[in-house]
Amino acid sequence: MKHPSLLAFALFLPLSLPRPAAQQAADLLPSGTGASGLSESEGRLWAVGPRYHAELGTGGIVYTPALGRAAARTETWSAQPLSIGREQGPALALGAAVARLDGARAVLEHGGGVQALYEAHSGGLEQSFAIASRPVGAGDLVVAQRIATNWPLAFVDAATGIEWSEPGLGGVHVGGVTAIDARGASIAGSLAFRDGLLEYRVPAEFVDAAAFPLLVDPLIGTVFTVAADLGNALDDHSPAAAYDLSNAMYLVAWTRIYSASSAYILGQRIDGLGGLVGAPMLITTNGKADPENGPTVANCNAQNMFVVGHENFVEVLPGLHKDGLEFRTVAASSGALGPVLELTGDRLEHPAIASQSIAGDSRVVLAYEFLPFSTSLNRVEVRTLTVSAAGALTLGAPVVAYTVFSEFQTIRHVAISRSGGTLNRYVVAFETGFETSADGIVRARAFDINLMGLSSTLLLSEDSSYSYRPSVDGDGNEFLVDWHAQKAGLFPTYLIRGRKLSIGGGAVLEPVRLISDSESASELNVSVGFTGETYLAAWKRANDVAISALNRVTIEPCGPPTVLSDSQRDFEVPAIAARYAGGSGSDNALVVFEGVTPATSMGDIYGQLFETENGSETQLGGGCGLISGTARVGCAVSNANSIALSLRGAIGGVPTFLFLSLNPLGYSEGGCTLYADPFSGFLLTPGNTTALGEKDYALALTPSPSLVGLQFHLQWGTYLGALGAFSFGGAPTGLNLSSAVRATFQ
Question: Model pTM?
Answer without folding.
Answer: 0.73
